[in-house]
Design goal:
The chain is mostly beta strands. The chain has no helices and three strands.
Length: about 45
């Protein structure tokens, strides 16, 4: 996953042991959230 500055973010754990994405250049941290599954094509009908 890329940061707004264009660099690749590093996966790390925060102090509560949650997965976070860190950018080493701009020191921006974002909590990682699980991706939502795509709805199946047959379920869309």
């Amino acid at each position: 996953m890329r940061c707004q500055c264009g660099r690749t973010r590093t996966i790390a754990l925060d102090k509560h042991f949650r997965t976070a994405l860190l950018c080493p250049k701009c020191d921006e941290a974002q909590l990682a959230v699980p991706a939502r599954p795509e709805p199946a094509a047959s379920a869309a009908r």
